[in-house]
Automatic annotation (TrEMBL):
Interacts with CtaA. It is an enzyme of class 2 (transferase). This is Protoheme IX farnesyltransferase. Its main location: membrane. CDD domains: PT_UbiA_Cox10 (cd13957). Belongs to the UbiA prenyltransferase family. Protoheme IX farnesyltransferase subfamily. The chain crosses the membrane at residues 30-46, 52-75, 96-116, 122-139, 151-173, 179-198, 224-241, 247-264, 285-306. It holds the Pfam family UbiA. Keywords: Cell membrane, Heme biosynthesis, Membrane, Transferase, Transmembrane, Transmembrane helix. It is found in: Cell membrane. Its EC number is 2.5.1.141. It is a multi-pass membrane protein. Converts heme B (protoheme IX) to heme O by substitution of the vinyl group on carbon 2 of heme B porphyrin ring with a hydroxyethyl farnesyl side group.
Length: 315
């Protein structure tokens, strides 16, 4: 049997898929981040939203995120089979047929967009549709396999959810929603490049032009510190808008100081040292970067919750 036939057979599906396998198509970990940031975007908006409308809107945004994940798994089935980090996903593992992933992705895309329009407004539905298109087509089909800037530009897909939540509430885009978008957008490159530093062989074997593959780890380390320094003023700057306040400011200053320190630690390291300790620092910074994002949006949420009691915000 040829390698090509093996690849085709192993992503054909064996008919034994469970509910859990289909749920895994939706990338639940990514979905959890989408739900949280979209919810924060909705809650910090200056316009109150009926709890039932808010619940339905977040549900449909989550389904849209899941649709994007399914479409990504359909398209990336061939390289997911090669990369150790993704080999256990439902399609490369042979549990779900590749065409089933496509059908699930398309069906959920249409469902989520239509029902978000009905539950909230057409502006939010349009933005959700564009987000799905951006992730599935612009990032997955084009950027990911064609340029080392894949993560930089493609990061926009993960940055839209808080903006969608804001539009659900207000029907429009504002400076605050743009700053929430920018926070995730600028955070994405150093977050994924830290991962790529200790996962380089996966991307190289799959033919994905990640920065570590095209420019090497030394260049990637420089890019991480550069983007982290650019990220800090965006993150801290949000404190001085209507959604910020002293709680967020303290959290942002501390988190960014720590993130910058971690980026400098990565920048100073050479490959001999990194390989000797199993990329300990790089793995630590990657894990912290996840906490970094949740704490920023958590602080924004706390400001919004305390604001009615006169404890949140600058007022």
């Amino acid at each position: 049997m040829s390698d090509a036939s093996f690849d085709q057979d192993s992503i054909a599906g064996n008919g034994d898929a469970s509910f859990g396998d289909y749920f895994a198509l939706l990338k639940p970990r990514v979905m959890s981040l989408v739900v949280f940031t979209a919810l924060v975007g909705l809650i910090v908006a200056p316009v109150p939203v009926h709890p039932f409308v808010a619940f339905c809107s977040i549900l449909f945004i989550a389904i849209g995120a899941g649709a994007s994940g399914a479409l990504n798994m359909w398209w990336d089935a061939d390289i997911d089979q090669i990369m150790r980090r993704t080999q256990k996903r439902p399609v490369p593992a042979g549990k779900v047929h590749r065409n089933e992933a496509l059908a699930v992705g398309l069906a959920l895309s249409g469902f989520s967009v239509v029902f978000l329009a009905l539950a909230a407004n057409f502006a939010a539905a349009f933005l959700l549709a564009f987000t799905i298109f951006f992730y599935a087509v612009i990032y997955s089909m084009w950027l990911k396999r064609s340029t080392p800037q894949n993560i930089v530009i493609g990061g926009a897909a993960g940055a839209f959810p808080p903006m969608i939540g804001w539009v659900v509430a207000t029907g429009s885009i504002s400076v605050e929603s743009v700053l929430m978008f920018a926070l995730i957008f600028m955070w994405t490159p150093p977050h994924f490049w830290a991962l790529a530093l200790f996962m380089k062989s996966d991307y190289k074997d799959a033919g994905v032009p990640m920065l570590t593959v095209t420019h090497g780890r030394k260049s990637t380390r420089r890019h991480i510190i550069a983007y982290t320094l650019l990220l800090a003023p965006v993150a801290v700057g949000a404190a001085f808008t209507s959604i910020g306040g002293p709680i967020y400011l303290v959290a942002a200053v501390l988190m960014n100081a720590w993130f910058i320190k971690g980026a400098f630690d990565i920048w100073r390291r050479d490959e001999t040292t990194a390989e000797a300790d199993g990329y300990k620092v790089e793995k630590s910074v990657f894990k912290f970067s996840i906490l970094y994002l949740f704490l920023h949006f958590g602080a924004l949420l706390l400001e919004a919750v305390l604001r009615p009691y006169g404890l949140g915000g600058w007022s």
